[in-house]
UniProtKB/TrEMBL annotation:
MF annotations from Gene Ontology: manganese ion binding; metalloaminopeptidase activity
Keywords carried by this UniProt record: Aminopeptidase, Hydrolase, Protease
Designated name of the protein: Putative aminopeptidase W07G4.4-like protein
GO cellular component annotations of the record: cytoplasm
Transmembrane keyword on record: no
Organism: Neocallimastix californiae
Chain ranges of the Cytosol aminopeptidase domain: 360-367
The family this protein is said to belong to: Belongs to the peptidase M17 family.
Superkingdom to which the source organism belongs: Eukaryota
GO biological process assignments: proteolysis
């Protein structure tokens, strides 16, 4: 992936680097008086105070001042206004990173240095641990502002407006080059997720999504397998085949399954075998339970889960991680409407042999992932990976998660995942990486509503109301996924428990636009997942 390069500049090299850059961005803690006493800023104190004489707002908001000997003769002052306490979190740095990069682009700056002049400190003078990743979060915020979506890149024939960013820190306690490599890998993975997830229904049809992934992994160690034959999909993944049934008559809309495998270069060091199953619904009309009242708008972004799975695999290979193996199953399918559409009241036998009573064709995400989840379970069993396996489903699954948690994703765990603190890890690590998670539990009520009568059906797919009108509508689909994949046989009191966690990302994957456009695809929560589990 093509992203701006991040170059570490030790302070001792600053003066020799000034002519190579064209702007100095100073990120510092806001205070009433500008008292920026650092070795770098002392050089410019006259210019800063001269400017302050004619503009009292200098230092209060993002401002650009002229300084003859600075890179590009300009300094961009970026105050962080936060108490660095429980009323705030490290996202403030990401938000300000996004803001200053927009200002920098307006100013025509092409190659800036970002200089972290101060640190987020508690009253006792120690750095606040919740803000410990402030540099990385700032950089990820800045890089997010430089991302140009895939179709726009193709139309405009350019990839980004800034090729390189220098990074300098006042408190040089460590070489941050490794941190910058991680930020670059996260940004590249996120960009891949945005590319796939943000494409329009035609540019991002199932086969084109598979092609983007195939191309990106071509020169890597990741093994890519694509299943396009509908007859095989029907046999191996009957639930997903039902969703795609009416799309097959248009070849470019036909479904496909993409399997990705990343193997650690040193198998003796592997601690985690991670399995990801992603929902890649390239357009969701709702099917025969058609989305009405304008609810179909934006439904080309229903492939966020699959896109994140691809991005996570990308990050692992980019960092050549030794402690993890990754297997990802991505189901790309278009939920079309036609005379051959699947309908409610059908009973479909799943890969696991359990019979699913279809209730609502708009609940196609759990159908798409159900059999892929079964395959992940089979993989764990065949390779006897129970001890160190973690299975995830990732999907823009329900509107309910947004009603429950607003813009935050939810991790919904089975008993073994709770035991292994999977959700807790996402919550704790996501918090300090500016990509926060909420944690939900599957309850017995969730199983009760999806359990079939055992005579004519084994599992009920859902109800016939929108998720936003249904209680526990982001939790009960996980009970369905547990039952349909037979993961319920691997509970905490079984001989072979398997940790399974579902991530509902519908609330965080896209931003609500302030106009009538489609809004931005964020690629969240890829940073939380990567920082929690990619070691
Ligand atoms: Zn749907």
């Amino acid at each position: 992936m093509d992203i701006p390069k991040l170059i570490y500049i030790p302070k001792a090299q600053y003066s020799s680097q000034i002519s190579n850059y064209d702007g100095l961005i100073v990120v510092f803690n806001y205070s009433e008086s500008i008292s920026l006493k650092t070795s770098i800023l002392d050089t410019y104190s006259k210019e800063i105070f001269d400017q302050f004489k004619i503009d009292a707002s200098i230092g209060k908001n993002i401002s650009i001042i002229h300084a003859e000997s600075a890179p590009g003769m300009r300094i961009i002052l970026v105050p962080i206004k936060s108490k660095f306490d429980d009323t705030d979190d490290v996202r403030i740095y990401g938000e300000i990173g996004r803001k200053f990069i927009e200002r920098v682009l307006e100013a025509g700056i092409k190659k800036p240095i970002i200089y972290f002049a101060t640190e987020p400190k508690n009253n006792d003078g120690n750095i606040n641990k919740d803000f410990i990743n402030f540099k990385q979060v700032t950089l990820l915020g800045a890089l997010s502002g430089l991302y140009i979506p895939l179709e726009a890149r193709e139309f405009l024939n350019k990839s980004h407006d800034i090729d390189e960013i220098g990074v300098m820190v006042e408190n040089e306690t460590e070489d941050i080059s490794e941190q910058l490599k991680i930020v670059e890998a996260y940004q590249e993975g996120r960009q891949l997720a945005q590319d796939i997830g943000g494409t329009s229904p035609e540019r991002g049809n199932p086969l084109q999504c598979a092609e983007i992934i195939e191309n990106i992994f071509k020169k890597t160690t990741v093994d890519v397998k694509i299943i396009k034959e509908y007859s095989i999909i029907e046999k191996e993944y009957p639930l997903m085949a039902a969703v795609g049934r009416s799309s097959v008559c248009v070849p470019k809309h036909a479904p496909c399954v993409v399997k990705l495998t990343y193997k650690s270069p040193d198998q003796t060091k592997v601690k985690d075998n991670l399995f990801f199953v992603g929902k890649g619904v390239t357009f969701d009309s709702g099917g025969m339970d058609i989305k009405v009242g304008g609810a179909m708008r934006g439904m080309c972004r229903d492939k966020g889960g699959a896109s994140i799975c691809a991005g996570i695999t990308y990050i692992a290979q980019k960092l050549a991680l030794k402690h993890v193996n990754i297997t990802a199953y991505l189901g790309f399918v278009r939920n079309s409407i036609g005379s051959h559409s699947y309908v409610c009241d059908e009973v479909i036998v799943s890969r696991s042999g359990r019979r699913v009573l279809v209730a609502n064709t708009d609940a196609e995400g759990r159908m798409t992932m159900g059999d892929l989840l079964t395959e992940a379970r089979e993989n764990v069993i065949t390779n006897k990976l129970y001890e160190n396996a973690k299975i995830f489903t990732i999907a823009t699954l329900t509107g309910h998660v947004g009603r429950a948690y607003g813009p935050y994703p939810a991790a919904v765990e089975n008993g073994q995942a709770v035991k292994k603190s999977v959700g807790r890890t996402l919550q704790d690590i996501g918090q300090i990486w500016g990509d926060p998670f909420e944690v939900s539990r599957i309850r017995r009520e969730d199983y009760m509503v999806v359990k079939g009568n055992g005579i004519t059906e084994d599992v009920i797919q859902g109800n016939n109301k929108p998720s936003t009108m249904t209680n526990r509508a982001h939790q009960f689909p996980v009970a369905f996924l547990n039952l349909v994949s037979c993961l319920d046989k691997h509970g905490t009191n079984s001989d072979n428990p398997i940790a399974y966690t579902h991530l509902d990302i519908a609330g965080c994957y896209g931003k609500v636009p302030n106009n009538w456009g489609l809004g931005e695809v964020t690629g969240n929560p890829i940073v939380a997942i990567a920082s929690s589990f990619l070691k």
